[in-house]
Amino acid sequence: ATQGACPFRGTRIGGALGSEPQLDHWWPNRLKVELLHQDPPQSNPLGADFDYAEAVASLDYEALKADIRSFLHTSVEWWPSDYGHYGPQMNRMTWHSAGTYRIADGRGGSSEGLQRFAPINSWWDNGNTDKSRRLLLPIKLKYGSRVSWSDLMMLAGTVALEDMGLPIQGFAFGREDAWEADRATYWGPEGWNGKRPTEAPAHPQEGRPEQMVNRGLRWEGDVKDDHYDLENPLAASHQSLIYVDPEGPNGNGDPMDAARDIRETFARMAMNDEETVALVAGGHAFGKSHGAVPADQIGGAPEVAKMSEMGFGWANPVGTGNAEYTSTNGIEGSWTPNPTRWDNDYLTNLFKFEWEQTRSPAGSLQWTPKDPDAPKTPDAHVPGQMNNLMMMTTDLAFKVDPEYRKICEKFLADFDYFTEAFSKAWHKLIHRDLGPTSRWLGPDQGGTFIWQDPVPEVDHPLVDDAQVADLKRKVLDTGLPVRELVAAAWASASTYRDSDKRGGANGARVQIAPQRGWDVNNPAQLDRVLRTLEGIKAEFDAQGATKISMADLIVLAGCAGVEKAARDGGHEVTVPFVPGRTDATAEWTDEESFEWLKPVVDGFRNYVNEDVGYHVAAEHLFLDKAALLKLTAPEWTALTGGLRVLDQNWDGSDWGIFTTRRGVLSNDFFKVLVSMDYAWKPHTEDERTFDLVERATGQTKWKATRCDLVFGVNTELRQVSEFYAGSDGEASLVRDFVKAWHKVMMLDRFDAKAARKAA
Ligand code: HEM
């Protein structure tokens, strides 16, 4: 050792708080268990007692809307409005916030206002939405915590549409803000040509900024090729875009290719062809695109901008840097002669004229009418100046694609039909990830739609404690094994995902297609349980006014199973049960959209759907499942260890069932997992499955998957496993398992929370 050397020298040069190298830089493939503990209460200044439902109830909705309307018409000097109306600009911000939603994992979307944080705030496609949010700030400050940023962002673009003439379907509040960036969402590979964002200048290549050229592509193969595919679960074709490249895939200017990209990305956003055309043709009836200045002159995104820019990015040094000098996407111009009024001019002009390729002042590829007599559109700022109309390659997609074209023709022939289609698609877009209507707040929520996954209201008295005890006894008396009771309840409740608040036990959709037939649910076994429970329900319901729904009974039967399993291990526990679920019908179940809830990996049941092409190890997707179930690391560990000894593998296999007492709630799983009595021998080089070989005898005692062994390998999970393996661990495990079980059963019970408050 060098004598006298400062022991802290490493921290003086580049080792300060937050600098690299951090864990993730050294070990990029580590399992990021900390993703389970995001957006903790410590980051939220509202405090634990804050109740957003109460806050919204105290809000004067009409006054708020009136304030937004008046703001839309009041231009400010630091960012003057186009055409004297902030409506189109607000609408784009709103759409971009909601449009990150993807149905595969329910992530993205409007619900937490994540557009305010990295990386989304700094995506190229969100250019100048920083200005839109800042323009709204006075209203946010006026209403304070009575309206969340995420609700206000949705409302602004909706009031804008209404103000410009579109009848709206209503508006629901209920989105609660995150207070830190979300790190759990996989947006696809970031990084620009191997460079970090700070190193990547906005570079023109034929006028296209570096971020848009040939990197961060989300698709594989050639766009013209049959093998063309977007990486699952992504719903944008390109890094830093919300959806697709307006200049065509990778800027190729081909409307047919653009159509292919649009169809794929919007389908993953849960929109069909008609909804897609309605949304884009509807949105582009308004406003303009901004491309006055080449991208190489525009400053960095907000995350890398100078401190003096006060959180803004994309500083524009030309002219005033705003108004007629604005450069956002790079394309320049408006689609219609009257960009602040709801009309059918977008489709009319798209179809009436031939369009030819041209370039904007910023160098971006766009289209202009061939016909010199085509209508012109007034400049957004320069009085008296008239400009050519503009279409993007993605707009022309609707004209050239035969299916889209048919829809456009229908919309052209029937403006009222188009108006309703747009209004409804907009309503779906901005509420898609708000979850069941029991979460919806405010006085003007609109009608009922199938995409809300509706469940009926409770229309009968609910079971009391004595009846619950009686029903549990009846369930156990049927002789159905613990394994099957627990499996049915888990199958029902565990579809919940906190990303878009869909799924869960309420509605009992586990007894309806497609869930009833999913292989992960072991349909034959599930059927047996459901038939038996139907018998108990019929008998119970016949006795009087009090009824029990199948949704409740499935959960109750699972609770009875868990209690028995604990009792058989010598632990007397009562698993909490809160009635009030109701049964949905097949008629009100959108099969296609429920198929998306089928797990890719459910490590709790040692299930891996090999048909889904993820290039990620199973334990990472298992972590993702735990995150979508809102579990903490100890809850995740306790549930897995408990479900293993309760014999919950979907196919009845032995993976990870480290016990000779199946169906008894014990800590056997953890005792074997942490023991050095065993060596773990992989079956194949890629280490998907293993034998646990007793060192003393050389005999194979158990077998396991990655989703079992990860709890012994990962340093943080291992600490929890050792805790449960300890001599006093079993009692803790039983306690924690029951708590975590109850939590999962209640994840979708927003109705119960509301009822508790009201009581
Ligand atoms: C503006 C692309 C879908 C509403 C823009 C701009 C681009 C674009 C490049 C110009 C941004 C700028 O430079 O200021 C696309 C593409 C879409 C799409 C490629 C899908 C294929 C939608 C949808 C809506 C929408 C679904 C809303 C329902 C708007 C509005 C503007 C706009 C209102 C004008 C913003 C302003 O005036 O400041 N769009 N868009 N767009 N978009 Fe879209």
Structural descriptors:
mainly alpha, Peroxidase, domain 1, 7% strand, 4 domains, 3-stranded antiparallel beta sheet, single chain
Q: What does this entry look like structurally?
A:
The chain has 759 residues and is mostly helical. It has four domains: 52-173, Peroxidase, domain 1 (Orthogonal Bundle), CATH 1.10.520.10; 204-423, Orthogonal Bundle (Peroxidase, domain 2); 465-595, Peroxidase, domain 1, CATH 1.10.520; 601-750, Orthogonal Bundle (Peroxidase, domain 2), CATH 1.10.420.10. It is built from 25 helices and 15 strands. It has helices at 9-12, 23-26, 52-57, 61-72, 87-98, 129-143, 149-163, 255-268, 273-283, 345-352, 393-400, 402-413, 415-431, 465-477, 482-493, 523-541, 550-568, 591-595, 618-628, 633-645, 668-674, 706-713, 715-725, 729-746, 750-758, and strands at 171-173, 219-220, 229-230, 288-289, 333-334, 355-359, 365-369, 376-378, 386-388, 441-444, 601-602, 607-608, 678-682, 689-694, 700-705. It has a three-stranded antiparallel beta sheet with strand order 13-14-15. Strands 1-10 form a two-stranded antiparallel ribbon. The longest helix has 19 residues, at 523-541. The radius of gyration is 28 Å and the shape is globular. The termini are far apart.
